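[Primary structure, fold]
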Amino acid sequence: MFKKVLIITVVATVIALSLYVNFGNHYKELAKQLKVSFMLYNPDKELSSFSLIDHNNNKFDNKNFKGKWTLLSFIYTHCPDVCPTGLVDMSILKSTLIKRSASIVPNLVTITFDPIRDTPKVLKTYVTHFDTSFLGVSGDQNQINQLVQDFGAYYERVVYAKNGKPTILKNDEPLPEGVLESGYLINHTAWIYLVNPDGQIFAGFPSPHNPLEMADDIELLVENY
């Protein structure tokens, strides 16, 4: 499993960096100063239009990114390890910025890969356990898949037969009968993304995460935006 996730992470890193290469000389110099993040800014690239629902049953769309900085991750609540670790890291990062009296403390948003199980109610209980300011987002699977693609992230569902043999399902494949009851896992990337106040992807932090150095990078990124 670890080897599979590592391969997915490497491939997703290459994809993400290939999508965002047009950030100009100013940001090229800035990118050289970053400790643990990658510049992903492309001023010509906008996120696809989307309309999802947050864990308070409010509409969540492109407008929610406008006029503020946002830290965003993709998770699923049945994740045994990577997702809870990432949410803890995001909470520590936020606390670090507050303690430093940083000029900007980004909003914390996490979008589920798995809306069929992660309803708004489920997400609210889960994400606020890590930090009460977290906002969990669920909704239409196809729109989530488009956002996953926009961010250069990746996931695949893994269903295990009774003999233990795994089957990888593509994102557009329906779940086999009975799988919701028996359960399934999701292999996925674990980047954390920084979205700028124009609602564009600005930078990304691959795992494993170091919240203190992430805070250094965020202060530098915000200062030079």
